[in-house]
Specification:
331 residues; alpha/beta; two-stranded antiparallel sheet; 12 helices; 41% helix
């Protein structure tokens, strides 16, 4: 990889102007789990990752500053920077990235290869179960994968089965993307080269319709793929994936498995690459916390109730892998 993946800046997306539910009376990233705002959980996880340099937090800047004073603890000076949110996710990532550059002027990247190759890490602010182990695992996977413009984190269904409802234990039921290799959920970890992504707005468009349980979103997604000229291979791949998802939910597992075998992950990566105008690669993580976000009304209480057990599970996994990590104490 031509860029330095061992020293990267990051953004936590803690804005409140967009959500799955439209305009909310409050910013969900400010909701409390274990008496700590959601975005503070991921902030503390990032602070433990040695490869992460400065951390920018986009959202209502004055509110973020207030919360950092109340919940931030002993954050090193010059490490964390609130940034006033803009209109949407892509705009928030972009404004944070520009803040990370020194004396940048539009067009500088045209004559500076190092600037064009600069990596930036982005994650959601509403995943209180994020751990430094999973973030490191993601970055290790990106480094091992080679030279790409956008790395997107995914987690296998088998990993996330631990968090689903069981006898006498509440949990989260999740939707998955169906690929030939198995069922996966896109998590909230992204590493990319902003100047190498030609079609930045594509991410905003597909983020809005990523919840494919709704027929309207399925229709919008299909129309979007047709308009964006990803070819028949991309269109059929999308159709087979949707069909596999629907058959799976209806209980027709064998039929679902038949159709998903026509959609290998590599095929999906090619479609995404054409959509964003850059080379994309998926990276698998195996802890699960970064795939669990507070994206449903009322499930904040579930995270509050299960937090200790779910965090303990992840740190036990780390212990089995020889990583000496202690569960962070929340005061």
């Amino acid at each position: 990889m031509s860029s330095n993946i061992d020293s990267i800046d990051a953004v936590i997306l803690a804005g409140g102007k967009e959500s799955r539910f439209g305009i909310l009376p409050i910013n969900k990233n400010m909701l409390l789990v274990k008496n700590r705002p959601l975005f503070i959980h991921i902030l503390f996880a990032l602070l433990e990752v040695k490869r992460i340099g400065r951390i920018f937090i986009t959202g209502p800047a004055d509110e973020i500053k207030r919360i950092l004073k109340e919940h931030g603890g002993d954050i090193p000076s010059g490490k964390v920077f609130p940034v006033q949110e803009s209109t949407d996710i892509v705009a928030n990532v972009w404004i944070a990235f520009i803040h990370s550059l020194v004396k940048y002027k539009p067009g500088d990247e045209d004559n500076d290869e190092e600037l064009r190759e600069k990596l930036f890490f982005a994650c959601a602010g509403d995943m209180p179960l994020a751990t430094p182990m999973e973030i490191d695992e993601f970055l290790d996977g990106c480094k091992a994968a080679g030279d790409y413009d956008w790395f997107m984190g995914m987690t296998r269904k088998e990993t996330l089965d631990f968090y689903k409802p069981k006898k006498r234990r509440r949990g989260i039921r999740m939707a998955y993307s169906h690929f030939a290799e198995g069922l996966y959920r896109i998590n909230n970890l992204h590493l990319f080269k902003p100047f190498k992504i030609k079609n930045k707005n594509e991410f905003t468009e597909f983020y809005r319709v990523r919840y494919l349980r709704r027929f309207s979103n399925i229709l919008k997604s299909g129309i979007g793929i047709l308009r964006r000229n990803v070819g028949l291979e991309g269109l059929f791949g999308w159709a087979f994936m949707i069909l596999a998802m629907k058959l799976y939910r209806m209980g027709f597992i064998s039929a679902s498995d038949y159709f998903r075998k026509f959609v290998p992950i590599e095929r999906g990566e090619k479609v995404v690459s054409r959509l964003i105008g850059g080379r994309s690669k998926t990276v698998i993580t195996t802890y699960g916390g970064c795939a669990l976000d507070v994206d449903r009304k009322g499930n904040r209480a579930l995270f509050e109730r299960q937090y200790d057990q779910w965090m303990e599970h992840q740190y036990k996994l780390a212990d089995k892998r020889g990583l000496s990590k202690k569960i962070p104490k929340i005061t």
